[in-house]
Amino acid sequence: MLGKKLVTAQKRGETRALCLGLGMVACSMMMYFFIGITIVPFYTKSVWTTETVCKVLKANIRDKVSCPSSKGSEDEETFPYPCLQVWVNLTASGQEVMLYQTEDTLERNPKCSYVPDKLENSKEVKARIETIASNFKKYKTFPCYYDPGGTQTNVILSRLYPSRGLLFAFLWPTLMFTGGCLIIVLVKISQYVSVLSAWQ
């Protein structure tokens, strides 16, 4: 009687462990799919892949411009902000090009190097842009990214999805997938050992 209860409990534990392993594998596959349709296309579409050194030539704040608060809608609300333009000397080619914060900045407003998020306090936006401009004038040399193929003549300060960030995004689903497979393998080994012991 006690032996039957132990066998039943063991089978229930193995079933739960097997369900846990399969669930972890399924969740990791969903995470792979989500990363594949969201982050990977942005990473592969970016042409600013090569890192070099940029030297600031001038950083000017021009008159206020209007920028849409959101993308993709026809009735876009716009908010004015000072337009910061940063021109740098590209070490790789020696050209004078315009610097943008990220790939998204160029798409939102190609006239300005920095596009702030919509803030109700216009003074805060102005102060932030002035701080950024002073930092560029203070630290004249810094790493930046350019297009080695020459499709884009401008440069960006940082990539939205760098290689390290992409690897970090794939790290968690990979760990979950490995853990799920390990649980499944251990359950199968346990079942095999149990059958072998009963046969002997």
From TrEMBL:
Membrane topology summary: Multi-pass membrane protein
Transmembrane segments: 20-43, 166-187
GO molecular function list: calcium-activated potassium channel activity; potassium channel regulator activity
Keyword Ribonucleoprotein in annotation: no
GO cellular-component term (any): voltage-gated potassium channel complex
Keywords recorded for this protein, A-Z: Glycoprotein, Ion channel, Ion transport, Membrane, Transmembrane, Transmembrane helix, Transport
Pfam families for this protein: CaKB
Localization of this protein: Membrane
Major site of localization recorded for this protein: membrane
GO biological process, alphabetically ordered: detection of calcium ion
Protein's UniProt keywords contain Membrane: yes
UniProt family annotation: Belongs to the KCNMB (TC 8.A.14.1) family. KCNMB1 subfamily.
Name of the protein in its database record: KCMB2 protein
Taxonomic lineage of the native organism: Eukaryota, Metazoa, Chordata, Craniata, Vertebrata
Gene name, Swiss-Prot/TrEMBL: Kcnmb2_0
